[in-house]
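Quick one:
INPUT:
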C-alpha cells in the first residue's frame, strides 16, 4: 500500500467546496515526482458540512470558545467595546452572543462571525476608543 499525504490550505479548501479542481502539494513525495489534482465530485453541501462536523467531534482541540479563538477574539472584543468606533446593535449583539456561547454553539456561530469580521474589519480591542 502506498500512502500519499496531500496538504491543502483554506483557499484550496474553499475552491474545492465551490466545485473547482485544485492542484495540491504532495507532502510525502518530492514535488518533481508527482502532481495531483483534487476535486469533490457528487458531494453536496450537506455532506461537506457533515464531514466537517465529524472532524470537529474527533478533534476536540479544534473546538474552542470565543475567548480562546486567537483569530477572532480581538475583533469580537473590539465590537463589544466599540473600538475604534461605535458598533451597530446587530453586530454588537452577535459579538456578545459569540463571547457568551459554549464550545458547541460557538462552533456553529464561528463561520458567521468570521464573515462579519471580513465585512467590518475595523474593530479591534487594541484600538483607541
Amino acid at each position: 500500500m502506498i500512502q500519499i499525504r496531500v496538504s491543502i490550505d483554506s483557499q484550496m479548501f474553499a475552491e474545492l467546496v465551490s466545485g473547482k479542481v485544485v492542484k495540491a502539494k504532495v507532502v510525502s513525495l518530492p514535488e518533481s515526482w508527482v502532481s495531483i489534482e483534487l476535486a469533490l465530485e457528487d458531494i453536496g453541501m450537506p455532506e461537506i458540512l457533515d464531514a466537517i462536523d465529524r472532524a470537529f467531534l474527533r478533534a476536540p482541540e479544534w473546538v474552542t470558545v470565543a475567548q480562546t479563538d486567537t483569530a477572532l477574539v480581538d475583533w469580537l472584543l473590539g465590537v463589544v467595546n466599540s473600538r475604534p468606533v461605535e458598533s451597530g446593535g446587530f453586530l454588537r449583539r452577535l459579538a456578545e452572543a459569540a463571547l457568551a456561547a459554549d464550545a458547541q454553539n460557538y462552533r456553529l456561530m464561528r463561520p458567521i462571525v468570521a464573515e462579519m469580521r471580513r465585512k467590518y474589519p475595523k474593530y479591534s480591542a487594541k484600538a483607541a476608543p
